Amino acid sequence: MTNNPRQTDRLSTARAQAMSGMRVTLIGLLVSALLAAVKGITAVVGNSYALLADAVESALDIASGLIVWGGLRIARSPPDANHPYGHGKAEPLAAMLVAIILATAAAGIAIESVREIQAPSRSPAGFTLIVLVAVIVTKELMFRYLWAAGRRIHSTAVMTDAWHHRSDALTSVAAFVGIAVAWIGGPAYAAADAWAALFASAVIAYNAVRLFRPALAEVMDAAPDAGLVRQIVDAAIQVEGVDGLDRCTVRKTGLSYVADLHIIVDGAISVRAGHAIAHRVADRIRRTEPQVTDVMVHVEPDDPDRLARRMVNEPRGPRNHQDGGTRRD
User: Fold this and answer.
1) CB 7, CB 287: distance < 8 Å
2) What is the architecture, at CATH level 2, of domain 2-219?
3) Closest C-alpha among 267, 258, 322, 277 to residue 300
């Protein structure tokens, strides 16, 4: 049985979350555009390859921000005939694309860094260090702002974009060190600027892998945090009339979660009574865990074998028939 009361309210909540994500992403875009311009001009005037690589990374922030913004815009669209389960997968797909862009940028910066190390140019100007201090502070603040917003609305794409800003801050730190060494050491240490850019490419590549994995897991409907499953199970078994759970699976879709439960009830009650219990279970779960927007409840009778394997306080994954697993009657 599928329970969908207050569907309009749930869709409105999801759209509001998407709009919030779009707003913070747009702010990140504007900041990235300003910093990319400042770093690019300073790099050319100040003769710093590390800062130029950092400017390229900031420019990629703009591209990734646009992708995240577009993914959230699609994800907030309501279900339609071709997408009856909504468009939530657009959000982790956007996160995956951002991670791929990061990896590509890392490869390009690494190649150019090696070339610069082999044939270093003159040392960078000292005023580039002042610019980098301002950049590092700004980017770290943007990371904290976007990360908090992403956690609040449960958006993988926004949190991925936040880490993009953190990686940009780290590349700026590397650029600062490299420029400082090259500036203080003179021509003999001119290659330090390029070594800093090479280190920055490694940081970017690491973050690309780190961000790609959770987005891929979400697209593949991987199980969420065990704590969320436990809370859903606890909420369900507290409903009067529920003798236990035979199954509980949860997956993330876009900015929210979908739960699928098999509850065990007295086999002698009427279909209407079982239906009412299922509704109460779905309502309680949504009240307890607001991020769970859809709850599907299947009602099963209290046969001895079901009661023997029921989930009480310890959530378990679905099992097969060979190990005494869940049946779908």
Assistant:
1) no
2) Up-down Bundle (1.20)
3) 267
